[in-house]
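Entry:
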Amino acid sequence: MKSDSIRILIVDDHPAMRAGLRALITSEAGMEVAAECGDGSVALDAYRVNQPDVVLMDLRMPILGGVEATLAIRSEFPDARIIVNTTYDGDEDIFRAIQSGAKSYLTKNMSKEEILGTIRHVYEGGTLLPSQVEERLRERLGRPELTKRELDVLDLLVKGRSNKEIADFLNLSEDAVKSRLKGLFLKLDVQDRTGAVVSALRHGIIHLE
């Protein structure tokens, strides 16, 4: 392996995806796989040990997600160059990833040329968002921020809980839950519970497990 190769850490919980990325990277001159792991919970240790030039980070993983893993790596290695590579393209997913310090956000339907080009661009110190990702990010920036309590209510709403069940779970009165739902509907620009659930899933604010 050449010492001047771009060394890449792959973090993805799907073995087939890791194999595909590995094959793509090892077939490209000037790139090599420094290491790979199947969950964000071990990504920081893998980064410490291997000191990669670039990280390809999945977003949704069972133990620790990509946003949390990115924050953990960058808290210790502020100059870490991390590219999120995911099937999720909700504007909230994109916003959280960029907020955490990711330098790019790729969806897994990108061409191999786009993936390799982004790796090089980020390695050289740049940031790069595909046009469709940039458009979704602008959409998110135009939406009001939800509070922690509103997110808690929304999560239970998506799970099909009634107002009484939400109130009991969050130790709130039913009137307080109704008030928070009204605020949610206003911020999400919807009229009812069904609209809020559809909007939350479409934007990537909440994911079905």
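Residues 6-141 form a domain with the Rossmann fold fold (CATH 3.40.50.2300).
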